[in-house]
Amino acid sequence: MEKIESQGIKPKKGLPRLMELAMTQKAPMVGGMILSALATIASFLPYLAIYFIIQEIVGAYPDFDALDIPKVLGFGGLALGGVLLNVLLYTASVALSHIAAYGTLYQCKINYVSHITKLPLGYHLKMGSGRLRKIMDDNIESLEGFIAHDLPNMISAFVAPVVMLVFAVDWRFGLAAFVGIIFSFLIYGVTSGGDKTKKLMEDYQTSLEDMSNASVEYIRGIAVVKAFRQTTFSFKRLYDSIKNYTKTVIPYSLSQELMTAALSAALNGIYLFLIPVGIWIGSSTNDYPAFAASFIFYLIFVPVIASVLMKMIYASVNAMQVGNAVERFDQILAEPEIPEKNTFPKPSVYDVVYDHVTFSYAEDCTTAKPQTESFQSQQEKVNVAAALQSVSFTAPQGKLTAIVGPSGGGKSTIASLLPRFYDVEQGAIRIGGTDIRNMSTGDLMDTVSFVFQDNFLFKQSILENIRMGRPGATKEEVVAAAKAARCHEFITKLPQGYQTVFGKNGVKLSGGQIQRIAIARAIVKNAPVLVLDEATSFSDPENEHFIQQALSELVKGKTVIMIAHRLSTVRNADQILVVDHGKIVQSGDHDELVSKEGRYQDLWSNYTKALTWKFSAGKEA
User: Fold this and answer.
1) Residue 541, preceding bond cis, omega within 30 degrees?
2) The three-state (H, E, C) secondary structure of 362-411, written as one string
3) Distances from the Cα of 527 to the Cαs of 54, 207, 494, 521, in angstroms?
4) Which of 47, 208, 533, 611 is the most exposed place for a label (fewest CB within 10 A)?
5) Which among 368, 416, 354, 397 is positioned nearest to 527, based on CA atoms?
6) What pLDDT, on a 0 to 100 scale, did the predictor assign at position 190?
7) pLDDT attached to residue 357
8) What is the helix (H) or strand (E) element at residue 122, kind and residue range?
9) Non-local CB neighbours of 135 within 8 Å, separated by 6+ positions
10) What is the pLDDT of residue 9?
């Protein structure tokens, strides 16, 4: 399935888009549709048999002894055969449509996951994990019901009136029934609400996504809620999202009320079109038994047609809902990925240079900036919320460069720009003289390893969690990395050692232990450039010492950029950069910076005071 691209072609929406997605699995989908049509034709055989039986009975009346019983039984066999054939064809149709549905779901989810991994991190922060999860779990999943069930039902409903006309036992009654069907759909068009109903549906989908997003946020913070004995009203965003959902879902649901009632009444009243036609035909017929047989047959048969058409209406309503859900999926696919030029080879030296880098977190900066944008327009956006302002420094290969400063000063932003979680607005970042925007994503990720303050372990074995740094690593290499990161000892004490699945059967790890596994992951990757963002933030003093020993081995021959709040972790850095309000205000080694007045001296003074701070009898000491 191809992604939506901006090529001047208006993307498909609604039913055409759903059909386009369904046809990505063309063979099973077409097969399922053909079998659904054949099943509908087969379902008419019992009613045709009923007509012949009625004809025999009316023809024999009142002398039922003259009734041809073998012939009637033969028609009964035809009815039974039609039922069995219908079941067989419908079962095969559903099987093929399900194969098509799950194939489409698989492809959609692969495309979705592949695409969102190439979007800037800022877009993920703006959208929220709850909304992205809902699109993945709910919006895409809704395709299964449409492709596997609704689409075959729609095919069946389209075929039914055609079969009714083709195999009409009396064209006059058939035409009257067909006029009733057209009248019913006119009623549906008048009462459906059109654009107003579509707008209500869009508002409903938006409020549902907002509520899902807020719910995920609330659940993640449930420990805080319980600790402070708060209620859902403490999270105003969740409360407001629930209220907004209620305000949208009720009008949307009620908007379907008139349409459903009117259509149901019209379809179930199609037989009313037969009555005047029957009176007209009966008053002038010369073959009353044939007329009676046809009239009785259509009075029995038309309600069946109505039930088939109601399935199509339900399917079309579902198609409208699924189409709206798919539009949101398509909107994500239409988001521009971080541009990847891949015009330069992987660097052979690994000095990292930030050259007059400027970046802001303005809302429209969450996606990659076009390189043709004027300096003036860029500067106007920078003035919105400049996180970094003309930052320049060189992190030499084989050296440890530490970045310190107050919270919100821009330290983590510097780290986030190196893996292109965002793209710089002005200036450039180079590795070995190559602008990272000219490197392929694969080369960049192979060149740089990251250990951030918030690390994530997947629900798989500890061995595989570490091996994610380099999937081809042997177990011996994983163990060696774990030892270097000082986590081998506690791993061996887990129930299954390195094969223990994180999160299974209550297996949990402390923040410091997770941090050390993340470091082991970076060690096994063995990339030439290493970024550590608060890598020791969850470690106690003893483990911090062990990690520093591991890092002293890891940094040999590598370019290391360390972001730290604990100044004790950077005392031995080759150079220290002090960042404040998005600018580098000082640089040098620890002894040089602590010996002269400036921001670093203030930070060091406050840090040493904090180490000696005591709390006793409710007073500071």
Assistant:
1) no
2) CHHHCCCCCCCCCHHHHHHHHCCCEEEEEEEEEECCCCEEEEECCCCCCH
3) 84, 44, 29, 11
4) 611
5) 397
6) 72
7) 93
8) helix 121-127
9) 112, 209, 325, 328, 329, 332
10) 47
Q: How far is CA 500 from CA 312, 518, 571, in A?
A: 51, 16, 37
CA distance 60 to 53: 11
Amino acid identity at 137: D
Helix, strand, or coil (residue 353): strand
Tell me 569's DSSP state: G
pLDDT for the residue 365: 42
pLDDT in tens, 46-76: 888 888 888 888 777 777 676 778 888 888 8
Structure tokens at 180: 């009733």
Spatial separation of the C-alpha atoms in residues 275 and 263, rounded to whole Å: 20
Q: Which among 582, 583, 578, 568 has a CA at the least distance from the CA of 598?
A: 578
Which pLDDT belongs to residue 576? 92
Q: Half-sphere exposure of residue 382, counting CA atoms within 13 Å on the CB side?
A: 18
CB 444 within 8 A of CB 420: yes
Residue type, 103: G
Provide the 3-class DSSP secondary structure of residue 359: strand
Amino acid at 207: S
From CA 192, how far away is CA 117, in angstroms rounded? 40
Long-range pairs for 468-473 at CB < 8 Å and ≥24 separation? 468/521, 469/520, 469/521, 469/522, 469/523, 469/524, 469/525, 470/524, 470/525, 470/526, 473/524
Q: Which residue has the tokens 């028609």?
A: 75
Which contacts (CB < 8 Å, 24+ apart) does range 570-573 have? 570/402, 570/404, 572/400, 573/400, 573/401, 573/402
Q: Which residues contact 328 (CB under 8 A, 6 or more apart)?
A: 135, 139, 205, 209
Inter-helix orientation angle 271-282/171-191, to 10°:
150
Residues 6 or more apart whose CB falls under 8 angstroms from that of 612 comprise none
Find residue 394's DSSP bridge partners: 353
d(CA 62, CA 85): 35
Residue numbers of the chain with a pLDDT score lower than 50: 1-9, 364-384, 621
> CA-CA-CA-CA torsion for 117, 118, 119, 122, nearest 10 degrees?
70
CA dist., res. 146 & res. 111, Å (int): 19
Q: What is the separation of C-alpha 432 from the centre of its chain, rounded to a whole number of angstroms?
A: 37
Residues 6+ apart with CB under 8 A from 512: 538, 539, 540, 543
Rounded to whole angstroms, how far apart are CA atoms 328 and 322? Answer: 10
- Rounded to whole angstroms, how far apart are CA atoms 269 and 184? 9
**What six digits make up the tokens of 128?**
């929220």
**Contact by Cβ (8 Å): 255, 193:** yes
Q: Give the pLDDT score at 551.
A: 67
What pLDDT, on the 0 to 100 scale, is given for residue 532? 83
Encoding tokens for residue 35? 């079998």
As a dihedral over the C-alpha atoms of residue 519, residue 524, residue 525, residue 531, rounded to 10 degrees, the angle is 20
pLDDT at res. 420: 85
